[in-house]
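Lab notebook, bench 4. Still working through the backlog of constructs that have no structural model yet. Next entry is a single chain of 135 residues. Request: give me the structure tokens for it.
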Amino acid sequence: MLAKIIPATLGLALCAAANGCVVTHDDTPDPTPMGTLTTSWTLNGFAGPDTCGYYQIDRVHVVVVDEDGFVLVDEEPFCEDFDMSVDLSVGWYSSEVTLLDAGGHGVSDTVATDVRVVRDTEAFVDVDFPASGIF
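Model written out:
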């Protein structure tokens, strides 16, 4: 029986090659559903070009932690950016935002917010640091 299967298989392979037919099978699973988390900040209600300089804020420390406590994002965008976005898998996250001076020292309380990222949508975390909370 094996003697019949081998020639038949070879015959099919030659026929497919001669006709330019290529058969492929992709076992790659569908990509993980993703959404976007955008964190924005203001200083005492303002996000103007001189606001960060007025409060002597250089950068903003943004940390995003997943449900299992793993840090997925640990970035320090310039204060003047006033927001940052990151694509994440669908799920619940904790976002932590702290203002930094030019030396990289925290000069505000850390604001933590829980947020849910939903497939193909943008979730927002908006943080305002009042003047009394900037030291």
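Notes after review: The longest helix spans residues 2-18. The mean pLDDT is 88. Flag for follow-up if needed.
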